[in-house]
Amino acid sequence: MKEDLQYLTPRQIVEELDKYIVGQHDAKRNVAIALRNRWRRMNAPDEMQQDIVPNNILMIGSTGVGKTEIARRLAKIADAPFTKVEASKFTEVGYVGRDVESMVRDLVEQSVHMVKAAKKEDVKSRATQIVEDVILDSLIPPMKTSSVSPGFFTDSNTEEMPSSDQELNERTRERFREKLRNGELESRKIEINIQQTAGANVGVAGPGIDEMTMMNIQEMIGGMMPKKTKKRKVSIAEARRILLEEESAKLIDMDEVKEEAIRRAENMGIIFIDEIDKIASPRSAGGSGGPDVSREGVQRDLLPIVEGSTVNTKYGVINTDHVLFIAAGAFHVSKPSDLIPELQGRFPIRVELQSLTQEDFYQILKEPKNALTKQYEALLQAEEVELTFQDNALRKIAEISFHINAEVENIGARRLHTVMSHLLNEFLFDVPDVIGANAKISITAEMVDERLSGLVKNRDLSQYIL
Question: Which among 359, 337, 356, 355 is positioned nearest to 347, based on CA atoms?
Answer without folding.
Answer: 337
